[in-house]
């Protein structure tokens, strides 16, 4: 990684994704998590404070040393044991059927090969386990989608490869996961091109 990606971008992501308005959404996303959880895109640990009591351990997948460094205090004070267990969501270093659940928040937009990462999630989460997600993506309105396509090349350059136009429920379904619940909405106070949210749960067959 270059200086911007390693030293500057993690702080920008911590600031923008750490807005207090997102905390209730993170809490909703984590509802129902239990057992051992693999979290893709752990970042600076912004979900740590909303893990439910039923979570026993979190295995964090985070490629950015800068993001992990920012997370240090949150990890140290967490009541749930957290281990940085991998760097690449596209190649998870775990056996099949290792985890009870997976968690991903504002992560699917930046993974270069999203189908590969979701295939890995389906492999390492036990049958019947759940994938909890909070992701921005393709807007439901055509006019907004047109702006997303215009802005995406800039967004990818300045935001670590972040895509604005990914169909999150569709990507989960294409990976063989069953989306059992999804709430699609625009986050208030954010330009719609960046605010088309998908919050839900998918189940591993």
TrEMBL record:
A Pfam family this chain is assigned to: Methyltransf_11
Positions of the Methyltransferase type domain: 39-132
UniProt key word Ribonucleoprotein: no
Database matches in InterPro entries: Methyltransf_11 (IPR013216), SAM-dependent_MTases_sf (IPR029063), Thiol_S-MT (IPR052356)
An individual GO BP term: methylation
Sample GO molecular function, one term: methyltransferase activity
Keywords: Methyltransferase, Transferase
SUPFAM superfamilies reported in the protein's UniProt record: S-adenosyl-L-methionine-dependent methyltransferases
Gene3D superfamilies xref list: Vaccinia Virus protein VP39 (3.40.50.150)
Protein known as: Methyltransferase domain-containing protein
The species this protein was found in: Gordonia hankookensis
Lineage: Bacteria, Bacillati, Actinomycetota, Actinomycetes, Mycobacteriales
């Amino acid at each position: 990684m270059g200086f911007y990606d390693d030293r500057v971008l993690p702080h920008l992501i911590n600031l923008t994704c750490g807005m207090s308005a997102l905390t209730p959404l993170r809490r909703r996303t984590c509802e129902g998590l239990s057992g051992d959880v693999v979290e893709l895109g752990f970042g600076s640990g912004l979900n740590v404070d909303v893990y439910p009591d039923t979570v026993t351990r979190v295995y964090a997948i985070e490629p950015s040393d800068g993001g992990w460094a920012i997370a240090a205090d949150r990890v140290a004070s967490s009541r749930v044991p957290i281990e940085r267990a991998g760097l690449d969501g596209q190649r998870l270093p775990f056996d099949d059927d290792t985890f009870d659940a997976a968690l991903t928040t504002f992560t699917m937009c930046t993974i270069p090969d999203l189908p590969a990462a979701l295939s890995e999630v389906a492999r390492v989460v036990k049958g019947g386990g759940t994938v909890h997600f909070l992701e921005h993506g393709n807007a439901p309105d055509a006019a907004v989608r047109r702006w997303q396509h215009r802005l995406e090349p800039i967004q990818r350059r300045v935001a670590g490869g972040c895509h604005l136009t990914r169909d999150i429920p569709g990507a989960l379904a294409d990976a063989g996961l069953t989306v059992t619940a999804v709430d699609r909405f625009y986050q208030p106070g954010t330009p719609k091109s960046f605010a088309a949210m998908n919050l839900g749960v998918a189940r591993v067959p």
